[in-house]
Cytochrome c
Amino acid sequence: MRKRSRFKRLLIGVVVAGVLVAAGFLALAWKPAIAPIDPPAAASFPADLVARGAVLAGAGNCASCHTVKGGADFAGGLPLATGFGTIYSSNITPDPDTGIGRWSEAAFARALHEGVARDGSHLFPAFPFDHFTKVTDEDLTALYAYLMTQKPVQAAQKPSTLPFPLNIRLLQAGWKLLFLHEGVYQPDPTKTAEWNRGAYLAEGLGHCGACHTPRNALGAERSGNAYGGATIDGWIAPALTAANPSPAPWTQDELFAYLRSGASVLHGTAAGSMSEVVHDGLARLPDPDIRAIAAYFADIDQAGARAADTETAIAKAAAASARNIAQLSDPDAHLYITACASCHYSGAAMPLAVRPDLSLNSALSLDEPTNFVKVVLSGISLKDGMPGVMMPGFAHSFSDAEIARLAAYLRATRTELPAWTDLETKVAAIRQETPAP
């Protein structure tokens, strides 16, 4: 009898503790709705504020995620594949019914700083509020002005394919407890103003870590491996740290050239979603902001300590390129010369921007051939890479075996890194996932 009474008290204690924990979580997770407003007239926003917001929207690359290919700007609906299911981006035009037309500036700021929608529901972390929380109120005001002056588009939110219980928005409060560190960017007093400006843009609106930082099992960026490289949209977003395997260091000048024009003489050309970042987003930023971002990442990848590597890399590239002439009897060398050398061989001592030297190309130095194969299959369009320069895709003219031979040949003759394995199988898999050019 005494044992039963003790068990009963223990059970009641467990239940009460559970209720208290649940009540505490609910109290923490619940967020009130912010009252809707009548959509403000576009003319109510000062032109200079709207113009500054346009630049900031470019820095955040907002259009890329919130616009479906061929669709209306910022109307949402773009599928964002995650490890848990597909989430569709939201409509951020000022449409009063399906967009943010009835959102006050306070509601807009809460969404970016805390990841909470106007109606009080938690946003999924596919929306990078863990970065946007670093954006200043002044910049959010400008960004709000810009978005509220765009053309309203009626486009209802598509439901995600997240399974239960991951589709319960209230549970995102738990994710935030673990991984969201709210607060505007705080300058590092040991760094220069340029470095801090670059850090603010990269860590905040630019949310560079969202693509370049590997994620943990819960989909959060691994805090101990910031910019350590990750896979995104079928591409490898290389490490932006000293772990980057490129033969030449990413100096501030090289980073500036790449982020400004879409190409770096010593590294290659932007492709995939990075091309959108450069040509559709960063293109709006002034040169000093691009240089600031470049200064920040050149410091992170310790380019200064590797400066001597540049001359060595260039000399090796020239020697490797010249070896092709002596290898005409090699069928793989012949494949390269007939398909690639007319554009990639220069014979000059210094690399030329219009004839990218593949010995210096970052794609050949990565652990996996993904980026190299995708470019060979799809090419580089005129809008993606360096202005006025394009590369045709070889998806229709090269078999999987030929692309595998080309990749193996260039990896062996242009780098000192281990051979890629299972190349033909990987080429076939990448071809299946890559839209035909």
Observations:
- The longest strand covers residues 79-81.
- The chain has two domains: 42-179, 193-433.
